[in-house]
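Long-time lurker, finally posting.

We've been working with MerR family transcriptional regulator (Frankia umida) and I want a structural starting point before designing mutants. I don't trust myself to interpret raw outputs, so I'm hoping someone here can both generate the C-alpha cells and explain anything notable. Sequence follows.
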Amino acid sequence: MSPGTTRKPADSLDDDDYPAYTVGRAADMLGTTPAFLRALGEARLITPLRSEGGHRRYSRYQLRIAARVRELVDQGTAIESACRIVILEDQLAEAQKINQQLRDDQSASR
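Top reply, 14 upvotes:
Generated this for you. Predicted structure of MerR family transcriptional regulator:
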C-alpha cells in the first residue's frame, strides 16, 4: 500500500500478513498449545506481532509455517530440527523462484 492511502477494514481479510489471530485462537486452529507457538518464537522461526496490550498476534502466513513445523514434529522430528527444515525449504523455494525469473529474463532477451 502506498503512503497516504487509506486502508479499508476489508483489506485485512485477504492480507496473509495481517496479524489477526490471538495465540489461543492460533493454537486452537493448529491443534496445538500456546507453548508450541511460543517455542517457534524462541526458535526465531516466526515472530508474532504484538497488540497494543502486548498480546501475541499471528498472521495466516505464520500459521501455515507453524502448521508445517507441527507436521514435522508429529512425524517425530525435534522442534529445533523442524524449524531448520522449514527455513531451508523456504530458502530453496526462494532460490528456485529467482532462478526461474533469471531463466525467463534470459529467454525474453533472446
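Before you design anything, note these points.
The first helix runs from residue 23 to 30.
The chain has a mean pLDDT of 88.
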